[in-house]
Every structure is written in structure tokens, then in C-alpha cells.
Structure prediction request, 252 residues.
Amino acid sequence: MAETSIEWTDATWNPVAGCTIATAGCTNCYAMRMAARLEAMGVDKYVGTTRKSGGRAKWTGKIVLDPGALAAPTTWRKPRKVFVNSMSDLFHPDVPVDFISQVWVTMAATPHHTYQILTKRPERMAEVLSVAEFEVLPNVWLGTSVEDGRVVHRLDSLRQVPAAVRFVSFEPLIGSVAGAELLDIHWAIVGGESGPDARPINPTWVDEIHDACRRAGSAFFFKQWGGKNKKATGRTYRDQTWDELPTFSPAC
Prediction:
């Protein structure tokens, strides 16, 4: 486990390492930079997961399974919100279904934790989790990332996922998602890109999401404006901090 400063969770758990660039939202992925640092520090499971390109770390596509990390949450007594695979994607096509099943076993055995799983591949999430062996767990929230209008279709795939709570991360928000339908999506996180090469966010794009949340009854969480110095830009929207969380919803 690693404690984290990510505003919408408490800790991270990474039984998988490594990923593949999927769409424009991946261009400046913080996890690529972090994986390169961890490899340089001698952390074995990140070896070979990134390469240098144009002076920056990029995913190589190598996926590393870490069976030794599977039982880690069973040793955490204090209830936590746990971001699963902050350094990868549990539903990457190279992660075997059997390994995903082992992650499910751990989450089922630790109902005092709330697990948050985010993927850029919700169509595989829906396919894998639709089989009988995967129980809908009330302590597992399942989500997808949507960075702009080109990938809004991921929401349709997410709606096909059997889950107690479904959520979307509009981060990094690099374009308008006007018209996004949040019906049956219980929670929306919104955030601008941060870091040295951060792309700008338009406040109108945030308004669009806020209004969509109000229409659908989805909780709205504004994470940050982002930029090169995210602390300087802060996370105040419409003169307040938005830390709404989803209410429990029966599986559907």
C-alpha cells in the first residue's frame, strides 16, 4: 500500500505494473514518469515498463503481474478508499482473467475497504465482469476515464458493467464533453491536466459536466484546475470546493 495525495482516494494498491498508451489522455500520464523513477530506484516490477522518447518516459507496453501484492489489503485494518492499479490498468488486454479474478477474491475478503478501479478499456471490463464468477461487490466502484468528446462512447460501455457504483474520471479534461449522458453513472470526477506539459482546461467544459451531473443525479467531485503548478490554481469551482461522493446504489 502507498498513502496518496490524490484527493478522491486514500491509498493505492498495484498488483499490476505497466501499461500502453491508448488515447490522447495518456500523452502526459503521471504514471509513466513515476514508473521510470521507480525503475531507476531499483524496484523490480517496473523494469522495462517504460522507455525514453523525446526526453520523456513512455510506456513500452510491458505488463508485469505482481502476485505477491495480491494479499496486501488483508493486512490493512483501518478502512480505506483504495485506488486499484494507479500504475496500470486492471483491464488491459494483457492482464489475464484469472489474475483479475484473484484481485476480486481479495476485495471480497476485505469488505471494510472501498475499492476504486479505473480503466480506459470499459468494453473489456464489461465483457470480463459479465460472467458468473465475478460477483457484484458493494465495496467495489468501477469507472472509466474520458478526456474529451472523442472517447465519450466509453460511458456507454461503462453502463454495461455490473456494478454497485459506476464512475467516470474526466481527467485530464482536455476538451469538451458536451452532450455526455451520465444516466446510471453515480459519480463524476473532473480535473485539469497537471505537470510540466499540461494542456489547458476551459471552464466551460467543467460547466458542461456539472450541469450533466445535476440532470442525472450524479455526484460531482472537482479535483483540480491543474496546470504547471496545480497548487497555485487550486480546486475551487464556483466559489466552493466540490467533494461529493456517490451514495450506495443496488447493483444494476
Q: What stands out?
A: Residues 91 and 121 are 6 Å apart (CA to CA). The first helix runs from residue 30 to 40. DSSP finds six helices and 14 strands in the chain. The radius of gyration is 17 Å.
